[in-house]
Write a structure and sequence with these properties.
- The complex is a heterodimer of chains A (about 950) and B (about 210).
- In chain A, about 35% of the residues lie in helices and about 15% in strands.
- Chain A is globular and about 90 Å long.
- In chain A, helix 7 packs across helix 9.
- Chain A contains 30 helices and 28 strands.
- The radius of gyration of chain B is 19 Å and the shape is elongated.
- Helix content of chain B is about 10%, strand content about 60%.
- The two termini of chain B are about 30 Å apart.
- Chain B is mostly beta strands.
- The chains are: A alpha+beta (about 950), B mainly beta (about 210).
- The interface between A and B is medium-sized, with 22 and 28 residues.
Chain lengths: ~950, ~210
């Protein structure tokens, strides 16, 4: 009888929004609450952790079911069963890479409690689906049935997220290196040095590193050991590159081209769209309240619905609020009453691509073997069956099996030695490419979050850290005990050649030799407790970390955590016990440089940090590269005005150039929109205001500079590369390369270390005497070209062919569309009509920001088109957390969208406008409900 | 302890006719409705919720004179019990079984007569079985043990002798019972207030 009275009908759960009602679904063990705050964010309270996670699944399904389904199907390689045959290439590649296979391995390794909570989550999702109609996105694809959610689905989604944060394909680098080397041989230049020293530099744009003294000891060891010089090093690499099997390289190129056609992989392969983030910590000694603070803003795809889902969980042991991923239970970034954490991506190199030699072998199950040191090792085949939905024909749930012909393989082939799938294979030549990724093993990231969702102190945090095996992150930490800390996580495999103190063949950020041996990860007989990989890994003590640094602050923004690349050589540090200490070939240097600059300036003024100060830094839209390049522009004009060299003098006399330089001379390097329709940090709480005259002036300078940047690259580096049809370095690498060329201009006169001249102004000869003029001509010519471009038809929808620089408002170019997988009305704008496009004739929302600013909103540095300055990646959660001493964590957050994924819901975009103007709201953790007799 | 109380009660009934040769004795069997008066001092807004339960009991009165008797009684109570939070039942605690042994004095206002209004008071010993339920297991609390406790009671009633040897009685009694309780899983103690009120109708034999 009592049980019956406690078991309230399902409907109550739906109606419980804000009602503080205790309800119990038959699938729950005890009652729970779903309380929606004024922002629509679900705060779950339950007596048991099981029930809290059940309701976690319930609200995820209620708000984000289609997104969850999309996530699990992407991970599992069954997306075509939802979206149709267009998604088959995605399915083929992801089945080959085997994230779901890897998830199965993880599932077997998770402890019982994690398994039970994953089951609770699945039960919550399925309970909601059983009681409610599917959301409207399903009607759009003519699907009426939902395949029940499973614990394995959640693990697969977690794998997908880890994959997105850690997968790197070394093929592009290899192809570029080989091309440079070949071109060098043809043109008589040092192509290898051109690659490493001039254009694909490891040294970042700004030297800010998180733990500056982390490798001081190992550097000394390296020096004593007589580390080879760069010329010898590059020479060896060039020689190794020359030995690569051309057929294997061709197979790798084909694989790369296939991936480039798939939206999911485009995001992974395009540095502008890859995950990034900012974080910093300030000790209590430097804050206005005396409490330590951390700030964090991960940068992922700005999409609809939002990447993150905000949620609060209060139960028996779980007690955390923050954000999670739809499809995975628990809070992944947030705070408990006593600790707070955030993270940025740490681009640790945990993926290696290998060239393979495949031979027929009738004795093997696949009829094929790989050769390893001349010995045949049978490939393991995994049979695949692909299905595709056929939306648009009016028949619901019309799935058909796709026959294995053409690009649809009948089976995935695995190199068992490395548990590495063959991703590309030419049976005629026997050349193949395999990919080995730490995440293919039984990793346990979800366990990390469970421990942290219950954490009371630093020890708990460190205990959880050991299970975050792949998708390496830089974690920023604070607590109510006054600590600030920085830790890196992830299992970094030890390569056998590096451990022997050398590089055999190509380094790990290029294609490696899978057949000859010497490049393998060192296997161990027994995995230590808590370790996922069956390989030797860097120990926790070797990972960059710092706790309560004496200087009182920590900054990380995907920059070099330990300074291992600051000498442009990521391979000349040694491990304490011997072997090369290697983390990653390169890092971002822009945002960390700017944040470090802001923190240092404030400390130099003897000012203390408040929560608002932390938020102001998050909203910073100053272009760090402009601080470096603009003085060259202004100096070029001054030089030109005094020059007797005709082309330079003519450019200096150009009225538009003069006017533009005058604007740049007084520019503060900030990037407001300069239009009333634009969303700027200066606006308040999502409400627009007319720009001030100063904002307008700044906005115009931002436009001119940003277009100049692309033209300067075009007239220097790209002009040279075009002549040899050489691959171009990425957007950020190119700007870094330009800085290096200008910094060494006085000694190299515009040429790189390779001797290749990049500042060419025919017919002026490339001599030391002409070097200053050539530089200034190209700088001013790029400015003139930029002005011509802005007045051209390309930019007519924004500027109507105007030559009046006052019309060049940055907001007309720097725009944002938050895209939905189904597009159209689901995108924002228009968000089903709730957020119409603010600018007639121009797509997107005008927003402040720009190339590699702290308030991430970057575009390609080469941008030269109307929509080239738009951005699609940025802060998917801004947060500031304060560890109130002898109190509780205070958390403030800002999210680019609402909790709901339903376009008709008022909670679809309710948080977007405040996010656009950098407002944050306090997000409180509801008190835990402690039962009588309970702890 | 509970079985010992039942044995004692049976002996009491068996021995009554013998004692009655010397004294006036009444034996009564009771059917009762119970109501718990729990206002336990829980944190977080929790309250106990007891369903109206049923009880069976028996008592014996030995008259010392025309107006005073001593009473011995035993009652067995059962009530469905739960926890309520913010007005909503949230946790099933299971059945609460109490056995109450008491001994006390009664004052018969009109003396021994056909109509017999009386009041009484005395000492009681409450034996509790504790709480056990699936919800408690789910909540990780295991079984909730309750301390047995000496307490007192008060009662009022009225009897009506239908014949010389047979009558009917109604009785209301109150037993304050505020035991300590503890979880077998967490070991955490919690003071409870249960304090049953027992409203009974009885059949009386007089010897």
């Amino acid at each position: 009888m009592r049980r019956a009275s406690l078991t309230l009908v399902l409907l109550l759960l739906t109606l419980s929004a804000g009602a503080q009602t205790w309800v119990r679904h038959p699938g729950m063990r005890l009652p729970g609450q779903i309380n929606r705050d004024t922002n629509g964010i679900a705060h779950i309270r339950a007596f048991t952790d099981y029930d809290a996670v059940f309701l976690n699944g319930w609200v995820h399904a209620q708000d984000r079911l289609f997104q969850m389904d999309e996530n699990r199907r992407t991970a599992s390689g069954t997306l075509a069963e939802l979206l149709g045959a267009a998604a088959l290439p995605n399915d083929v590649q992801l089945r080959t890479l085997g994230l779901r296979r890897a998830a199965s391995l993880s599932q077997a390794e998770y402890p019982a409690r994690v398994g039970e909570l994953l089951e609770a989550y699945a039960a919550g999702v399925n309970a909601w689906v059983a009681a409610n109609p599917l959301p409207p996105e399903y009607a759009a694809v003519e699907i009426t049935q939902f395949e029940p959610w499973t614990a394995l689905d959640s693990i697969a989604v977690a794998k997908l997220l880890a994959f997105g944060l850690s997968f790197d394909l070394d093929v592009e680098n290899t192809v570029a290196l080989l091309t440079y080397r070949a071109a060098g041989q043809q043109l008589g230049i040092d192509g290898t040095t051109l690659f490493f020293e001039d254009l694909f530099r490891s040294k970042p744009f700004d030297p800010a590193s998180t733990v500056p003294d982390a490798t001081a000891a190992s550097k000394r060891v390296a020096a004593q050991a007589g580390t080879r010089g760069s010329q010898e090093r590059w020479g060896n690499i060039a020689e190794a590159a020359g030995k690569l099997d051309p057929a294997a390289v061709e197979a790798a190129k084909q694989y790369l081209e296939e991936l480039r056609q798939i939206p999911f992989f485009q995001k992974l392969l395009d540095p502008e769209l890859r995950g990034a983030s900012n974080e910093w910590a300030i000790a209590g000694s430097l804050t206005t309240t005396g409490n330590p603070m951390i700030a964090n803003d991960p940068h992922l795809a700005l999409r609809m619905p939002s990447t993150f889902y905000p949620i609060g969980l209060s139960a028996a042991r779980i007690h955390a609020v923050g954000v999670g991923f739809p499809g995975v239970p628990l809070v992944v970034q947030g705070h408990t009453p006593r600790i707070a954490w955030g993270s940025t991506v740490n681009p640790m190199d945990v993926t290696d691509a290998y060239t393979e030699q495949i031979v027929p072998d009738a004795t093997g199950p696949a009829g094929l073997s790989s050769l390893y040191k001349g010995v045949r090792e049978p490939l393991l085949p995994i049979t695949q069956t692909f299905r595709a939905n056929n939306p648009g024909n009016g028949t619901p749930n019309d799935l058909s099996v796709v026959p294995p012909v053409g690009s649809i393989p009948p089976a995935t082939l695995i190199v068992t030695r490395r548990n590495a799938p063959i991703v590309s294979l030419n049976l005629a030549t026997g050349a193949g490419v395999s990919v080995q990724w730490v995440g293919h093993g039984p990793t346990r990231e979800i366990e990390t979050f469970l421990i942290w969702n219950e954490a009371q102190n630093l020890d708990d945090f460190r205990r959880g850290l050991q299970f975050f095996d792949v998708g390496s992150q830089n974690w920023i930490y604070t607590d109510v005990d006054g600590n600030i800390g920085y830790f890196t996580s992830g299992e970094m495999p030890i390569r056998e050649d590096l451990q022997a103190g050398t590089v055999t063949g190509l380094p790990p950020f290029f294609l490696r030799d899978g057949a000859g041996g010497g490049n393998d990860w060192i296997r161990i007989a027994t995995r230590p407790p808590g370790q996922a990989s069956p390989y030797q890994i860097l120990s926790a003590a070797e990972m960059p970390q710092v706790l309560n640094p004496a200087r009182g602050w920590i900054v990380n923004a995907n920059n070099d955590p330990a300074g291992t690349t600051l000498d442009n050589n990521p391979l000349n540090q040694l491990r304490a016990g011997g072997g090369i200490f290697y983390l990653s070939p390169s890092y971002s240097g822009f945002r960390a440089g700017r944040i470090t600059q802001l923190v240092r300036e404030k400390i130099a003024r003897n000012e203390k940090f408040s929560v608002e100060d932390m938020q102001r830094i998050q909203a910073d839209v100053v272009l760090l590269d402009a601080q470096f390049f603009v003085p060259y522009i202004t100096q070029a004009l001054e030089n030109g005005l005094a020059s007797g060299i005709a082309p330079l003098a003519a450019l200096a006399a150009h009225p538009g150039v003069n006017s533009a330089v005058a604007r740049l001379r007084t520019w503060n390097f900030s990037t407001p929109t300069g239009i009333p329709e634009g969303y700027d940090a200066a606006d308040v709480n999502g409400a627009l205001s007319a720009p001030s005259s100063a904002e307008i002036e700044t906005s115009i300078a931002a436009t001119i500079y940003s277009v100049w940047r692309g033209q300067f690259i075009k007239n220097t580096i790209d002009a040279v590369l075009a002549t040899g049809n050489l691959p171009r370095p990425s957007s950020a690498l190119t700007v870094t390369a330009l800085r290096n060329l200008l910094e060494n201009y006085g000694t190299r006169f515009g040429s790189g270390a390779s001797g290749v001249p990049f500042f060419n102004v025919p017919p002026i000869p490339n001599t030391a005497e002409t070097a200053p003029a050539r530089r200034d001509i190209l700088i001013l010519k790029s400015l003139a070209d930029a002005l011509a471009l802005l007045a051209s038809d390309e930019f007519k929808p924004a500027f109507n062919n105007s030559t009046d620089q006052n019309d060049y408002r940055w907001g007309k170019l720097h725009r944002l569309v938050l895209a939905h997988p189904l597009g159209g009305p689901y995108n924002t704008p228009p968000a089903g009509g709730a957020f119409p496009a603010p600018l007639p004739g121009l797509n997107g929302i005008p927003v402040d920001g720009g190339f590699e600013v702290v308030d991430a909103s970057s575009h390609n540095s080469r941008a030269a088109t109307l929509n080239g300055f738009m951005f699609g990646s940025g802060p998917v959660r801004r947060s500031v957390s304060e560890g109130v001493r002898n109190g509780a964590i205070r958390g403030f957050t800002s999210l680019p969208g609402g909790p709901s994924g339903l376009v008709a819901s008022p909670m679809y975009i309710n948080l977007l406008r405040p996010w656009l103007t950098n407002e944050a709201f306090q997000i409180d953790l509801q008190p835990r409900v402690v039962l009588p007799w309970g702890r | 302890m509970k079985s010992a109380a039942i044995v004692a009660l049976l002996l009491l009934f068996a021995g009554a006719p013998l004692v009655a040769q010397e004294r006036n004795i009444q034996l009564t069997v009771w059917a009762s409705q119970t109501e718990m008066q729990g206002e336990s001092d829980f944190e977080g807004g929790f309250e106990t919720d007891f369903d109206d339960g049923a009880a069976l009991g028996a008592s014996a009165n030995l008259f010392l004179n025309n107006r005073f008797s001593v009473e011995g009684s035993v009652f067995g109570l059962r009530s469905e019990t739960g926890l309520v939070l913010d007005g909503t039942p949230v946790l099933d605690l299971g059945k609460l079984d109490l056995t109450i042994l008491s001994a006390g004095a009664q004052f018969h206002i009109l003396g021994q007569s056909r109509f017999d209004p009386y009041i009484g008071a005395g000492g009681a010993y409450v034996i509790a079985d504790g709480f056990s339920s699936g919800d408690l297991q789910s909540a990780g609390l295991g079984r909730i043990e309750l301390d047995n406790e000496f307490t007192y009671y008060g009662n009022v009633g009225i009897g009506f002798q239908i014949t010389q040897g047979f009558g009917i009685v109604i009785d209301a009694r109150y037993i304050p019972y505020e035991p300590s309780s503890r979880s077998s899983a967490t070991g955490i103690e919690q003071d409870l207030e249960i304090s049953p009120r027992i409203l009974s109708a009885g059949l009386r034999l007089q010897f």
